[in-house]
């Protein structure tokens, strides 16, 4: 996302400084990046990160800060006066309400949205429910890329719950009814004072297991668009809010919310991106794009969808920005080292030092 926004903002005449937790992050290799900067880990050095960000903004006379990953939640913890001056983000009290997978469902249920039956794992032990599909989704309240999400039948769920009891971690997980979907969608939209400025809806079909989508095509989905507008207005959203949706024979269900931009920004035009810094709304023509480079790391996935992937525009490679090619190699090397060091998968490694952890869980 950072690379996409860097290119488009620069084309709009805006000087872009790119920052990350390590030298060699992909967008840092872009010819469109005016200046680069490495900041402390938001997850492991939260206060240092927040102070460093304030100092950098002041030193370089930065006008506007756009977080592109879960560092947004650590930025949202900063004082409200600073947030209002340099960002268009909601403060942490609002942001975490929707980022938390349990409270997100509770809030939408209050607004009479169709939502899957969801219960904190600790409460499920006392008040279990029967899933219509006989399957259950088991996932942490905070997680990215569905890396820890499991789908269990009843007996398997009992075993998993017992393991959590042993670790005393039930409060950190939820149990959700499994929905037999006909389609899955993702949305990413940008708001200002509750008013929708711009955004996209795209099907989530070609993806890594149940995780990151690699192929994007904008679609019209009136029910989802109406719901997104309603949510923005009801809660007076500011900044990016990105939702995952499941469509069944019963209707469309919001599943979880990412309080940040997601890969849908790859479908933004320059006019869409301009709405982030200037008021207005704009919807673009339809275009198909894909992260082909990453898809090539999953050859079977690419082969099964070879026609769609070959016909899609690559979101990373650009003739006028070839430094990104070498940057990709360096970036993947960095993440492979993080993967090995912490014994996690490659997707988790990409946000290891950014992933949000509640204050009480930070060391």
Structure description:
By secondary structure, the chain is an alpha+beta fold. The chain folds into 3 domains: 1-87 and 322-363, Rossmann fold; 117-177, Dna Ligase, domain 1 (2-Layer Sandwich); 183-318, ATP-grasp fold, B domain (D-amino Acid Aminotransferase, Chain A, domain 1, 2-Layer Sandwich), CATH 3.30.470.20. 38% of the residues lie in helices and 20% in strands. It has 15 helices and 13 strands. The chain has helices at residues 2-11, 46-59, 71-76, 80-86, 92-99, 101-110, 121-126, 154-167, 222-235, 270-277, 292-295, 299-304, 306-311, 323-342, 346-349; strands at 17-20, 35-38, 118-120, 135-140, 150-153, 173-177, 183-192, 195-203, 215-217, 239-248, 251-258, 288-290, 313-314. The chain has a 4-stranded antiparallel beta sheet with strand order 3-6-4-5. A 4-stranded antiparallel beta sheet has the order 8-7-10-11, with helices on both faces. A hairpin with a 2-residue loop joins strand 7 and strand 8. The longest helix is centred in the C-terminal third of the chain and has 20 residues, at 323-342. The protein starts with a helix and ends in a 14-residue tail after the last helix.
């Amino acid at each position: 996302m950072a690379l996409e926004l860097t290119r488009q903002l620069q084309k709009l005449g805006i000087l872009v400084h790119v920052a990350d937790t390590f030298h060699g992050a992909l967008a840092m290799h872009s010819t469109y990046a005016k200046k680069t900067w490495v900041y402390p880990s938001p997850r492991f050095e939260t206060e240092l990160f927040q102070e460093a960000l304030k100092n950098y903004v002041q030193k370089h006379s930065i006008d506007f800060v756009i977080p592109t990953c879960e560092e947004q939640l650590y930025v949202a913890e900063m004082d409200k006066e600073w947030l209002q001056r340099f960002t268009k983000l909601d403060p942490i009290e609002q942001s975490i309400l929707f980022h938390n997978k349990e409270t997100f469902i509770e809030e939408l249920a209050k607004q009479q949205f169709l939502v899957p039956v969801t219960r904190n794992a600790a409460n499920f032990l006392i008040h279990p429910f029967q899933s219509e599909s006989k399957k259950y989704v088991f996932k942490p309240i905070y997680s990215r890329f569905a890396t820890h999400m499991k789908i269990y039948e009843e007996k398997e769920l009992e075993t998993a719950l017992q393991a959590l009891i042993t670790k005393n971690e039930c409060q950190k997980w939820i149990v959700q009814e499994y929905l037999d979907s006909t389609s899955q969608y993702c949305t990413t939209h940008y708001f200002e004072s509750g008013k929708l400025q711009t955004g996209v809806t795209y099907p989530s079909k070609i993806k890594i297991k149940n995780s990151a989508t690699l192929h994007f095509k904008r679609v019209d989905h009136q029910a989802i668009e109406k719901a997104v507008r309603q949510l923005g207005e009801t809660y007076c959203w500011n900044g990016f809010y990105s939702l995952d949706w499941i469509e069944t024979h019963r209707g469309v269900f919001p599943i979880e919310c990412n309080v940040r931009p997601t890969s849908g920004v790859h479908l933004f035009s320059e006019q869409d991106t301009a709405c982030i810094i200037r008021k207005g709304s704009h919807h673009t023509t339809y275009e198909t794009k894909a992260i082909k480079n990453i898809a090539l790391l999953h050859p079977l996935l690419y082969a099964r969808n070879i026609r769609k992937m070959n016909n899609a525009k690559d979101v990373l490679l650009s003739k006028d920005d070839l430094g990104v090619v070498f940057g990709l190699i360096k970036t993947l090397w960095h993440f492979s080292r993080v993967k090995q060091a912490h014994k996690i998968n490659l997707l988790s490694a990409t946000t290891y030092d950014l992933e949000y952890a509640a204050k009480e869980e930070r060391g």
